[in-house]
Design a protein that fits this description.
The chain is α/β, with parallel strands linked by helices and 450 residues long. 55% of the residues lie in helices and 9% in strands.
């Protein structure tokens, strides 16, 4: 591992604060804490996305699917992609859960978010859409939604305009109001969507005309953005499996029809769909778990892979002075094993251990604190896993593969089961779930009655 950063956390309080489960966002944090895990994930997915962006010529566009378990580190990787490509693209980073109702999202919702964000960027850059194109778009929208200048103006407070320091253009106000209605009550949402669906071809065509105009205007003022807009649509992996199937399978063509380059995140459960996602999108770019195991098809309890364990422990070492905060370095290995190679789970258990040790008036984390923290994570799973699914989990544990059905997709989405790569693609039950008594009983039953 490369030299460690200076001034790492050396108290429990400081360690708790730096082992945050949130992704790395700022350039400073990425530079300080980022660890390249591609080698131990056994994947080239992240580098492949960068290569695909590099291969695009100006005015060429593509839509890429970026998937993996929630909390596996996708957002941090996307922030790094944002940093690396800001010199050639005008990058717009969108967090889906802040803009959409992720429990009930339609592709038209994504369209509205994207064009509003592009409009906002254009106006903050002191640029303007072509007047005729804009008038056509706004007129159609007013017609199908029954909105007027007056009804839209009443929905935007003066304080909001003052906040951004500029006069908000009408298109942003209009789209903002429509988005609020979609996120509002069921009746409003249904009405707006029905209106948009009346002439979806017109909506798509007008948005693409505006995107093309925005690209020309942006490039004329900022020649460095020769490849136009790069939209990173993060946190779409939080949509439930049924919504994911609707978006990425049923409406994959519509998601790829906008004239800009877009990276969509998606839940890993969607790649286990019988719809064969690669027929719709290019091969999905999957970020698997850090591979901490030595894979053996017919061995239930797998041995650990030293390279993977070292890599996952380095995430803590980048942030914390291990000898100052842990009673022994073995405890760091215990944390790595309990994580299953899942970054957020690693940070959750570590944070809980720091908090527990401090609550018990200790200066360092002990083995008891680690055990307690893992148990709390285990209890969380126990509360959420229905009894009827333990036999399916036992089957994954023994077969190293998840069923390609609704139950299998639920297990992946809920983080009961992880995906790993290497010479093989395989699944294994989350190590915290493996500690649950009901799971262990299901394994006993399955092995005694194969």
């Amino acid at each position: 591992m490369s030299s460690l950063p200076a001034n790492r956390a050396n108290t429990l309080k400081a360690a708790f604060r730096v082992c945050d489960v949130a992704p790395l966002v700022t350039s400073k944090d990425i530079e300080r804490y980022y660890v390249n895990l591609s080698k131990v994930r056994k994947t080239e997915a992240i580098k492949k996305i960068k290569t695909r962006l590099d291969f695009l010529e100006p005015a060429e566009f593509c839509s890429l699917l970026f998937t993996g378990h929630r909390g596996c580190g996708k957002s941090t990787e996307l922030r790094k992609i944002q940093q690396e490509w800001e010199s050639q693209y005008k990058v717009i980073y969108i967090e889906a859960d802040a803009e959409l109702d992720i429990l009930d999202a339609e592709y038209t919702d994504l369209y509205l978010v994207i064009i509003k964000k592009v409009a906002d960027v254009l106006y903050t850059s002191e640029l303007n859409f072509d007047t005729q194109l804009l008038n056509n778009f706004e007129s159609w929208f007013k017609e199908i939604t029954q909105e007027t200048e007056q009804t839209v103006e009443r929905s935007v407070s003066i304080g909001t305009q003052a906040e951004v320091g500029i006069k908000i253009p009408f298109i942003s106000k209009l789209l903002g109001k429509i988005q609020a209605q979609i996120k509002g009550g069921d009746k409003e949402r249904r009405t707006v969507r029905q209106n948009l669906q009346k002439d979806i071809g017109r909506l798509q065509a007008d948005i693409n005309l505006l995107l093309g105009d925005a690209f020309v205007k942006l490039k004329s003022k900022y020649p460095e953005y020769e490849k136009g807009f790069l939209i990173i649509f993060d946190n779409l992996d939080r949509v439930p499996p049924n919504v994911a199937k609707h978006l990425f399978c049923d409406y994959s063509f519509q998601l790829q029809s906008l004239h800009c380059t877009i990276i969509y995140t998606a839940p890993i459960s969607i790649v286990y769909s019988e719809n064969n996602l690669s027929n719709s999108f290019d091969t999905p770019n999957i970020v698997p778990m850090v591979n901490i195991y030595e894979f053996e098809q017919y061995k239930n309890e797998l041995d650990y892979n030293d390279e993977g364990i070292t890599a996952i422990t380095s995430l803590i070492e980048q942030r914390v002075e291990v000898d100052a905060v842990f009673e022994s370095r073995q405890l760091l290995v215990d944390l790595a094993k309990a994580s299953g190679g899942h970054i957020r789970q690693l940070m959750q258990i570590a944070s809980q251990a720091f908090l527990t040790a401090a609550t018990r008036d200790r200066d360092q984390v002990t083995a008891d604190d680690i055990i307690y923290a893992i148990k709390q994570e285990q209890f969380n799973f126990e509360r959420s896993i229905p009894t009827k699914y333990y036999s399916a989990l036992a089957a994954v544990y023994m077969n190293k593969d998840v069923s390609k059905d609704e139950i299998g997709r639920l297990m992946l989405f809920s983080l009961w089961v992880f995906e790993y790569n290497g010479k093989n693609r395989w699944n294994y039950v989350n190590p915290v779930v493996r500690q649950i008594h009901a799971f262990q009983e299901a394994v006993k039953s399955a092995t005694s009655n194969p």
